[in-house]
Design goal:
Elements (H helix, E strand, L loop, with lengths): L1 H71 L4 H27 L3 H15 L7 H26 L16
Helix pairs in contact: 1-2, 1-3, 1-4, 2-3, 3-4
Amino acid sequence: MNGVLSTLVAVLGTILGVVVTHLFQRTSSERAQNFALGQQLRAERLTVYSDFAGAVTELRRGQQDRWHRRREDPESSHHFEARTESYRLRGVALHALFRVQLIADSPEVVDAARDAYEKTSALHQADDQQGLRANGELARERLEQFIVLASTDLGVSPDARPTLSGGSAR
């Protein structure tokens, strides 16, 4: 009887050990999978957010070029080329905005991206050089606001964020 009891305790101990090990491994595996998915999503967001910032920066340059070429000679081939390029850049930036809308978790990030796109798209409508500068500054500020919100969404520390003007984000 004593031998049977010892065997039964050993078998139950082994079964309990297997169950506990299985639960621990499953929990550990789920954590690792969730971490990997989180890292993959973060990397994808980083790519999408930086692509958007680059597209809006290029759009801003294209809109300013369009404005200058129109002032030089509205009937010139240079103005036509600059206008065509600004349309192309607007399409690229709009595509990047759609990607932000699809991947962003925060409505504030999406709103900031949309605002940066809209302010940059309207840049060429300035009446004079002072208006162009003011519109350009507003577009830059809105893009910087998007970058601050996107950085927060990515979990980047405020001290580690660069700004468009090269200074501190604060």
